[in-house]
Amino acid sequence: MAPPPATGLPRKGETISPPGGGAGPRAAATLVHMTSIDVHDLTKEYGTRRAVDHLTFRVLPGRVTGFLGPNGAGKSTTMRLVLGLDRPTTGTATLGGRAYATLREPLRRVGALLDAQAAHDARTGRDHLRVLAASNRIPDRRVDEVLAETGLTPAATRRTRTYSLGMRQRLGIAAALLGDPEVVMLDEPSNGLDPEGIVWVRQLLRRLADEGRTVLVSSHLMNETASFADHLVVLGRGRLLADTPMRAFIEARVRPAVRIRTSDPVALKSALAPHGHEVVGQQDGHWTVPHARVDDIGRLASAAGVPILELTADEGTLEQAYLDLTAAGTEFAAPPQEA
Q1: d(Cα 169, Cα 43) in Å, to the nearest integer?
Q2: Domain 255-314 coded CATH 3.40.50.720
Q3: Domain boundaries, the chain
Q4: Where are the alpha helices (DSSP H) in the chain?
Q5: Looking at 26-30, 92-96, 134-138, 296-300, which range is the least confident one?
Q6: pLDDT over 80 at 334, yes or no
Q7: Are 19 and 180 in contact (CB under 8 A)?
Q8: Separation of alpha carbons 147 and 193, rounded Å
């Protein structure tokens, strides 16, 4: 069975790079009036269970949007709705204002990886991609190009039943890139990859966004998402919890702190206490001043003659910000079923 079709679409009068042109800096010059993903009041119910609950958000081109939430939050269901693989109970999901089902040769418009296990076990990696290319009028040369880009050329003639999980992930990404699409949607693309593969995915996502493409990447791994995302859409139990730039999300939910290493912690505490700063010892020998900024702590320590060996800002992490977001509503943190 072939993987779900990948997709993207032009607006009236726009110019896009032709399939086979290759995703790269040269292609970026021809990708104009890019396609957005628009989700409006989207709801999906399975019997009495509401998997997606009145979602509204927009994914814009030229940046990587991280689609976050725990397993069961509704991320995969939402992506299936966008790709026309499920029908919504209510609401709409469109690509440049058009439903996926109305697209001709969708692989030339939107590239998607939803299920890395979807390739036919009896086909080779190359044959799997050739079938997809032929059904979407994509030049056969693109098959070898995406095999090379994903590092699968040495395994191209092997049957996919012999592929590891990481190799199947790469094959799914190759299928998503096959039509040189404007829109790329990847569901947990780092799953099964080794550290080298994870770094490669990060670099790929950044390049696709830099070329002006619309990139939506779902994940439940917060700190991995922090390595490539510009913007975040966060779900919990099918509901929208946040739709914001990543840095703004972190800064709004994780108060800054300062890490210090000093040879005289007693003097440090004495210098900071009158100004309302608490100094907390850490196991690695550093000291942390919560809710403080480097400039302020450095100035106070210097004025008191405290010897400072190291002074750095602790800006907080995406994971910390996410945990803060869900702390007030435990129903968002541990859903019983997967999306």
Answers
A1: 29
A2: no
A3: 25-244, 255-314
A4: 25-28, 75-82, 125-135, 141-149, 165-177, 195-210, 222-225, 246-253, 265-272, 294-303, 318-327
A5: 26-30
A6: no
A7: yes
A8: 16
DSSP helix/strand/coil, 333: coil
pTM of the model: 0.79
In 3D, which of 257, 259, 266 has the Cα closest to residue 306? 266
> Rounded CA gap, 208 and 69, in Å?
23
Structure confidence by residue, pLDDT tens digits, 229-250 = 999 999 999 999 999 999 999 9
In three state form, how does the secondary structure of 24-44 look? Answer: CHHHHCCCCCCCCEEEEEEEE
Q: What is the mean pLDDT of residues 312-330?
A: 80
Alpha-carbon distance of 213 to 106, in angstroms, equals: 16
Report pLDDT for 244: 97
239-245 and 308-314 as β-strands: parallel, antiparallel, unpaired? Answer: unpaired
Q: Is residue 4 over pLDDT 60?
A: no
Q: How many CB atoms lie within 10 A of CB 24?
A: 13
Q: 63 phi and psi, to 5 degrees?
A: -150, 160
d(CA 11, CA 33): 7
C-alpha distances out from residue 104 to 16, 32, 78, 98, 307, Å: 15, 20, 22, 11, 68
Band the pLDDT of 329: cuts 50, 70, 90: very low
Check: CATH 3.40.50.300 for 25-244? yes
Number of H helices, E strands in the chain: 11, 13
- Is 255-314 in the same CATH topology as 25-244? no
Contact residues for 335 (Cβ-Cβ < 8 A; gap 6+): 70, 71, 72, 73, 237
Q: Identify whether the C-beta of residue 96 lies closer than 8 Å to the C-beta of residue 31.
A: no
- What are the φ/ψ torsions at residue 116 (nearest 5 degrees)? -70, -15
CB-CB contact of 189 with 201 (8 Å): yes
Q: At what angle do helices 125-135 and 165-177 cross, to 10 degrees?
A: 20
Largest CA distance in the chain: 74
